[in-house]
Prior knowledge:
The chain is mainly α. The chain has one domain. It is 79% helix and 0% strand. It is built from 3 helices and no strands. It has helices at residues 3-34, 45-54, 56-69. The relative contact order is 0.16.
Amino acid sequence: MDMPEKGSRMVAGFFVRAILGLTLIFFINEFLEVNDISLSVGLNPVTFATSGVLGTPGVALLYGISFYQGL
């Protein structure tokens, strides 16, 4: 596998994780709102980057930070 192919795979993986992460955040926010739980994570470039780099654990980390700030 040559270098440009490896780089494009990494970029594609980042965007796939980021889009899935933002989708997950959207649906979790909707679920929490329906159940009258006032905990949400915004959809912005920081959450995009976090979910792109860290994936699903990054989304969980964002909710953990949001919960901790609400204490």
